[in-house]
Amino acid sequence: MIQFRFSTFFLLLSFAFLAACTQQENSEEATADYDFYFDFEEEANRLGRQNQEVTKLIVDGSAEDSIVVEPDWENELALFIDADINKLRLKDSYRREETNESSRKTISLEAIDAELEVTQVAHYFREDRLEKVQIKVQKSDFLRSSSYELSYFPDSLYLIKAKIEAPYLLEKNLEIEARFNN
Questions:
Q1: Among the listed residues 136, 127, 134, the one whose alpha carbon sits nearest the alpha carbon of residue 163
Q2: What is the pLDDT along the chain (182 residues), one digit of tens a residue?
Q3: How is the beta sheet containing 157-165 ordered, strand by strand?
């Protein structure tokens, strides 16, 4: 009887522990409430449901390649999705600036801490309609450093400009432009 109570107690304690861990995980992913951040995961799902095709132009140094594809949007927008700064733990890590000029509005976040990979996120609006999202990312480790400039124009195109530098190797520049086939 004591063993039954102990195992029941242990089982209940395990469930409580799991519930607490799940709740903590969810609070970590809670939004920082920037109230404007474009959700690229949601956009990838939407574009996937629409079977949106793109014409891609890839420029790698001097070579150019153009292809038409129906992409896996989660893969296609992976750099954008990874650059999500709308997390509670990052709330005080960015300085927010807002400019308004007649029908145009810009909201930008700039990293306060130089250690953050996402250094800038800017949203450009025209007449309260999102026109462009621009993201700058800097990554560095002991093997290489890379910088990315990501631009997304909803339902129109996206651009990726990458620069990768590694000791003892040539600098690599890559540009990808993907235009939506409407």
A1: 136
A2: 444 443 333 333 333 333 333 333 333 443 344 445 678 899 999 999 998 889 999 998 777 778 888 888 999 999 999 888 777 667 788 898 999 988 899 999 899 988 899 999 999 999 888 999 999 999 988 888 999 999 999 989 999 999 999 887 778 899 999 999 87
A3: 63-69, 53-60, 172-181, 157-165, 145-153, 129-140, 118-126, 104-111, 94-101
CB 139 within 8 Å of CB 149:
no
Taking the model in full, what pTM does it have?
0.75
Query: What single-letter amino acid sits at 155?
Result: D
Residue that is written with structure tokens 């992976």 in the block: 78
**How far, in Å, are 17, 38, 79, 91, 133 from residue 84 at the CA level?**
29, 9, 9, 12, 12
